[in-house]
Amino acid sequence: MIERTLAIIKPDATGRHQSGAILQRYEQAGLVPVAMKLVRLTKAQAEGFYYIHKQRPFFDSLCSFMSSGPIVVIALEGEQAIKRHRDLMGATDPAKAAEGSLRKAFGTHIEHNAVHGSDSSETAQFELAYFFNALELPQP
Ligand code: CMP
User: Fold this and answer.
1) Which of 18, 64, 98, 128 could make an SS bond with 13 (beta carbons 3.0 to 4.6 A apart)?
2) Helix (H), strand (E) at residue 7
3) CA neighbours within 13 Å on the CB side: how many for 11?
4) Cβ atoms of 59 and 53 closer than 8 Å
5) CATH superfamily label, 2-131
6) Is the CB of 51 under 6 A from ligand 1?
7) 17 catalytic, yes or no?
8) pLDDT 10s digit of each residue in the chain, 140 long?
9) Ligand 1 neighbour 116 (Cβ under 6 A)
């Protein structure tokens, strides 16, 4: 099944000029960017995006970090894109991420973990609509 998922290259990775290297990994994996932009979130916009984590102890720090610099948001399309992107990213904590995964290669800390990816089709729908309107990301 062809799916779409939202990928974010986080401020730690954009700050280290690793966006190109990460995009190359998506393309090599057959996860095709169908919409993409570089944005800088306000803290309130980061809080809206991560509302599901509102009760977590790391919520404030996560939202401060995600609004600390530019991010690249990408709609990726491909066969089983949601799961394949999560496999490519690796575990949330870079220290536990598999060899060859994006978070192992580019992340440095559980919060500064280089990339984000939608974790289900419902989440992907919300997250894609958070960043892209119908002109930028037409229905497939
Ligand atoms: P992400 O995939 O963007 O989804 C939520 C983020 O919260 C996650 O990546 C991590 O960056 C962060 N996160 C998850 N668990 C923790 C934790 N225990 N401590 C700090 N940050 C966390």
Assistant:
1) 18
2) strand 2-9
3) 15
4) yes
5) Nucleoside diphosphate kinase-like domain (3.30.70.141)
6) no
7) no
8) 999 999 999 999 999 999 999 999 999 999 999 999 999 999 999 999 999 999 999 999 999 999 999 999 999 999 999 999 999 999 999 999 999 999 999 999 999 999 999 999 999 999 999 999 999 999 98
9) yes
